[in-house]
Amino acid sequence: MTEAARRRTRARIRLIKIQWLLILALIVALILSFVTRPSASVPELIELGEFKTTAYCTCVKCCGIWSAEHPSRVGTDYVQRTKSGTIPTADRTVSVDPDVIPLGTVLIIDGCEHIAEDTGSAVKGNIIDIYFDSHELAVEYGVQMKTIYIKGD
């Protein structure tokens, strides 16, 4: 093997070593980026205070003329919706006084998220009406005092 061939071989070996060092450096950087990545932080909860919580469903007893079951609505294409335009859903929809809690606010009640989507004639001040799928469940819930939270930044 000539001296020129040996030089080319050594140059190739150096180039391969440099490439492997770069690959190793990239792998280490990638691992470090995963290890030092900030974890998804849990938002701080802001306490709104003690609220009287009641329960409602879509029946005539709870919603009166606004119920799809009301005699004036039966046989029509009426769809019962909340004040914000959504269809009430258990474990999500609550009715609030929008002067106290703006519509669209995510509330934490007993560790579960609810959305302020509705209003009601009896919902004034520190009262929250929680939607249930049936009148029986709403009656079973009754009236309870709860500490209410919202998510902070």
Q: Order of strands across the widest beta sheet?
A: 1-5-2-4-3-6
Q: What's the β-strand tally? A: 6
* Sheet with the most strands, sense and barrel status: 6 strands, mixed, barrel
Strand content: 25-35%
Structural summary, described in words:
- This protein has helices at 3-35, 60-63, 135-141; strands spanning 45-56, 93-95, 106-109, 112-118, 127-131, 144-151.
- With 153 residues, the chain is α/β, with parallel strands linked by helices.
- The chain has a 6-stranded mixed barrel with strand order 1-5-2-4-3-6.
- It is elongated and about 105 Å long.
Describe the structure concisely.
By secondary structure, the chain is of the alpha/beta class. It is about 30% helix and about 25% strand.
Task: Lay out the secondary structure.
Elements: H1 3-35, E1 45-56, H2 60-63, E2 93-95, E3 106-109, E4 112-118, E5 127-131, H3 135-141, E6 144-151
Parallel strand pairs: 1-5, 2-4
Antiparallel strand pairs: 1-6, 2-5, 3-4, 3-6
